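User: Before I run my own analysis I want an independent prediction to cross-check against. Here's the chain; please return only the structure tokens and, at the end, one sentence I can use as a sanity check.
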Amino acid sequence: MNVCVIGCGYVGIVTGACFSEFGLRVTCTDTDADKIAALGSGRVEMYEPGLSDLVRRSIEAERLFFTADRDEAIRGALIAFIAVGTPSAEDGSADLRFVEAAAREIGRNLDGYKVVVTKSTVPVGTSQKIRGWIEEELKAAGREVHFSVVSNPEFLREGAAIGDFLRPDRVVVGTEPGDDQALAIMKDLYRPLFLNETPFVFTDLVSSEISKYAANAFLATKVSFVNELSLLCDDVGGDVQSVARAMGLDRRIGSKFLHAGPGYGGSCFPKDTRAAAHTVRELGRKFEIVEAAMRANGRQLDYATGKIASACDGQLKGKVVGLLGLSFKPETDDVRESPSLAIIRALLKEGAQIRAFDPRAMDPASRELPELVLCEDAYDASDGADVLVIVTEWNEFRALDLRRIKELLRQPKLVDLRNIYNPQTVRESGIEYWGIGRR
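Assistant: Structure tokens:
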């Protein structure tokens, strides 16, 4: 079975590499010729644990190929995945121009039956639009070719994408009514996961499309909820970690995503919550809970920045802030809508200077914020700073030599926006401590 993946961004590369691990012949294609050349030589420029090794191994086994010739890639495949970006438009909706371009390319190259699968995160109704775009291209060429449209959303976590793909919580497949041929092909495609007894949800196109937004909107809401609790704990003297543990032990709730911090970020939660809210508004309703979560997330970023200002006695101008963590989460170099970068922008606006370190995200962050002073490690970032701030909870930040940190800081102050340190331990080392929702 030959598979084509259109789009060599994060989702496209992971999808192509993992399907090739199943033993399938996969061709990934993209309009960025430089990216294709790098990938073809086995060089993955983004950081995702295990991905580079998987790509190189599959290339050497001649199961994974990269080409800038989309036409050839599409014509040679039975299954064509659309895995292009769907960035936010100004009104919060998902911008589908790349999806449309991919669908029209498929239509122009449809030389026989194919299954067209949407991997990109798209709003409800996009599958029908994809069918329409392909049919328009066929009609313009005076051809009639049978094809199927399938929705197969991704549920990958950056930093754990390989495991999420090869050992997923579930796989969702949406097909058109009565399309047994497409359903059989999708089952064959995912045969290795059937053997591992992975849960599958076979449903209609609309329900499949909704499922992706529903999952991300719910998780974003869960994050915002615990962040709201952290403010309450700060106000009344509670410990948000104890509260979250008490909640999480309830099996109806669960402990995942109940960690207070500076707010959610990344390539999915901000974009998908905006798109979900926009879709519901277009239907004449309001997604009240999701919109409240979005507002709470914005407030949390301001609150986190205020914690840093408090540690600087309310005066940020001229202060040097040592900052640890630039990516939106650990185990990735992704800085898209990173809380860290939003906080840095606010600090710079108030006249602070930033000395920053991140294990993986230094280059992308410096392209976004050239004013940053990039440091060699956490201790270099602390050297001469008025306060040290932990924004992203990389494991290497969890066991710092606090006595050395105290000696390097101009003032012994730590703002722990991820609550990874015990306040008493920090204070016993002679450093003042500020957490989120704990004292």
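Sanity check: The radius of gyration is 24 Å.
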